């Protein structure tokens, strides 16, 4: 039987042995005494007693996963088989985690590496890896389906995408809150649509996916972007309890776009785009910009290019222009770097720079609102408070911004008129698109209900006084409806309310409705102080679920709704990396499998 020291040492050339723990090399030409002394003195390892055999066995098993090349000859066939299986498992995981082509295993470089590291290991072919990926997909799907089965309610988010090979896909994500009040998002599917992308065909896919995952009876809402076909599909469906919820971040961007379409603003944005493009394409100008930044004591900041598909990229571009103004104007004014002909085309007037500098602080809160909406910790309950705050506190202007028409400075008046028009346009778009302060607003808007159940916004201070009572009345209606459903499903005595009635409650004949009545619970919930907007609302509810069980159940239903469909859009970022130029011939089912495994790899 090999000495126990070989669990901690491996043999290296010239009669030496290397410690697996500290990598120190020790001579052991005659015996293992020096190795034992090292283990006892340096690492506190002693010879195991007979009672420690199981521990020794565990240590041996753990080293099986990390065997060295020289160890192979000393391992039993069974251990080698387990070790090789671990390697195959790691290769399979690497394929989807690093978004590699399945054919990666056929690459000469990879095969040379594996033959060098583990000469006796038989590298699996593409077909074998594909089978392994499908097995991993099935196992992960079963695991996540079991998790979804425990969810009280689920919200879906969806988006569309076209691949390099012009295949049209629709992604569907599920959002829910776990028993421990942890918000969770999983990718359900990324399915190809072979037929036309009509609302009926999209609706069919949504129904198919929800039925496949067994959640078709508990979908609270479906959040989509503003594409007409997807919006119509959801509005005409009976898949979700609530319809008409579009991505708040995308809707906000449409309002911002309306403000940026003002002619003078559009012109200055176009000029800025040309300047940024010049520095991106001219190696000489870009190097000189860096040199000027250093000379002026400015941080080395790149000019950011505007991109129509990137939210807030106009803000980032204009902000980078303001921060680099001195360096940019110096480079454009240097005739050894920038030709006069080019400089004239890129020239910005003082009025242009003034408009840019005024636009940046106006765009910043709109950018921050987008970030808040896209934060997975912020459900739909945050949307109306933020939008109303934007309208009232950031787009309302101030007395200092008003310039009387009689003033002599026409340029200054034009600037302020432009900024006022921007505020008004964006504000009006937000009011229209989010139905803020309008008489036709539906009191069943899930955004309002969610806000009323969020401990950060439950006082509804942002809503009009006449709307607050309507929203609270709607919450009470939903509580009663929810309680009836709960009672019907718990008729055999398994309801949480029945479980809460103790022996002492019965003996003292404590009225059950004194606290378990949903109206009383909601009143107690409202009497709690409203918490800071930076508070983790899920943690807050986790600690108070037992205190307000009926309200918590309703909150868990509405706080599953995300503010945006950004999670579905992020799927296509990974899908784009999956369907690359090297593997644009992937079968649609393999695209679905690989995207699913990548998106859910941390769950």
Automatic annotation (TrEMBL):
**Mind naming one GO cellular-component term on file for this protein?**
nucleus
GO BP field: post-embryonic development
Give me the stretches of Basic and acidic residues compositional bias.
69-79
Under SMART domains, the record lists: ZnF_BED (SM00614)
GO MF term set: DNA binding; protein dimerization activity; zinc ion binding
Q: Where is this region: Disordered?
A: 43-79
Tagged with keyword Transcription: yes
Q: Where is the composition biased (Low complexity)?
A: 54-64
Is Hydrolase found in the keyword set?
Answer: no
What keywords are annotated for this sequence in UniProt? DNA-binding, Metal-binding, Nucleus, Transcription, Transcription regulation, Zinc, Zinc-finger
Q: Which coarse location class describes where this protein primarily resides?
A: nucleus
Q: Where is this protein localized, as stated in its record?
A: Nucleus
The residue ranges of the BED-type domain are 1-50
In terms of PANTHER family, this protein maps to: ZINC FINGER BED DOMAIN-CONTAINING PROTEIN 39, ZINC FINGER BED DOMAIN-CONTAINING PROTEIN 4
Question: What's the protein here called?
Answer: Zinc finger BED domain-containing protein 1
Recorded source organism is: Diaphorina citri
What is the primary gene name for this protein?
Answer: LOC103510802
């Amino acid at each position: 039987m090999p000495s126990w020291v070989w669990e901690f040492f491996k043999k290296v050339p010239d009669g030496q042995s290397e410690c697996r723990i500290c990598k120190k090399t020790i001579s052991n030409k005659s015996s293992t005494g020096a190795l034992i002394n090292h283990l006892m003195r340096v690492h506190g390892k002693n010879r195991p007693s007979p009672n420690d055999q199981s521990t020794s066995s565990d240590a041996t098993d753990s080293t099986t996963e990390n065997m060295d090349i020289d160890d192979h000859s000393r391992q039993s066939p069974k251990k080698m088989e387990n070790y090789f299986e671990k390697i195959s498992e790691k290769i399979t995981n690497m394929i989807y985690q690093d978004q590699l082509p399945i054919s990666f295993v056929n690459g000469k470089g990879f095969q040379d590496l594996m033959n060098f590291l583990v000469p006796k290991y038989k590298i699996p072919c593409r077909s074998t890896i594909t089978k392994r990926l499908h097995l991993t997909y099935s196992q992960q799907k079963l695991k996540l389906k079991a998790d979804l089965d425990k969810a009280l309610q689920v919200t879906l988010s969806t988006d569309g995408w076209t691949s390099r090979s012009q295949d049209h896909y629709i992604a569907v994500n599920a959002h829910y809150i776990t028993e421990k009040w942890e918000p969770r998002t999983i990718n359900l599917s990324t399915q190809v649509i072979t037929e036309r992308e009509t609302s009926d065909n999209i609706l069919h896919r949504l129904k198919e996916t929800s039925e496949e995952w067994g959640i078709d009876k508990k979908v609270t809402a479906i959040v989509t972007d503003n594409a007409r076909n997807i919006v119509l599909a959801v509005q005409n469906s009976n898949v979700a309890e609530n319809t008409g919820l579009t991505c708040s971040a995308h809707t906000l961007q449409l309002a911002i776009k309306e403000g940026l379409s003002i002619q003078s603003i559009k012109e200055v944005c176009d000029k800025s785009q040309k300047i940024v493009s010049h520095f991106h394409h001219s190696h000489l100008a870009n190097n000189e910009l860096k040199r000027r930044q250093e000379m002026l004591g400015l941080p080395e900041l790149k000019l950011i290019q505007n991109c129509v598909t990137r939210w807030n990229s106009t803000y980032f571009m204009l902000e980078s222009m303001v921060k680099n103004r001195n360096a940019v104007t110096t480079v454009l004014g240097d005739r050894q770097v920038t030709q006069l002909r080019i400089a004239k085309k890129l020239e910005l007037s003082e009025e242009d720079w003034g408009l840019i500098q005024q636009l940046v602080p106006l765009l910043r809160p709109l950018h921050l609102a987008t970030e808040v909406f896209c934060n997975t910790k912020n459900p739909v309950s945050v949307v109306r408070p933020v939008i109303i705050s934007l309208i009232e506190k950031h787009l309302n202007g101030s007395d200092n911004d008003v310039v009387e028409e009689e003033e002599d400075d026409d340029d200054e008046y034009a600037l302020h008129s432009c900024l006022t028009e921007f505020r008004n346009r964006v504000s009006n778009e937000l009011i229209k698109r989010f139905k803020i302060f309008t008489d036709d607003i539906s009191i069943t808007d899930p955004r309002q209900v969610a806000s009323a159940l969020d401990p950060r916004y439950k006082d509804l201070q942002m809503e009009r006084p006449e709307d607050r009572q309507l929203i609270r009345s709607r919450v009470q209606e939903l509580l009663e409806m929810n309680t009836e459903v709960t009672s019907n499903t718990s008729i055999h005595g398994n309801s949480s309310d029945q479980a809460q009635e103790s022996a002492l409650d019965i003996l003292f004949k404590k009225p059950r409705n004194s606290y378990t009545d949903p109206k009383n619970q909601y009143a107690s919930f409202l009497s709690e102080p409203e918490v800071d907007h930076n508070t983790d609302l899920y943690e807050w509810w986790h600690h108070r679920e037992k205190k307000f069980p009926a309200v918590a159940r309703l909150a868990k239903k509405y706080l599953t709704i995300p503010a945006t469909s950004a999670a579905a859009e992020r799927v296509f970022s990974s899908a784009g990396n999956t369907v690359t130029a090297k593997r644009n011939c992937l079968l649609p089912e393999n695209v679905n499998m690989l995207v699913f495994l990548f998106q859910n790899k941390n769950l």
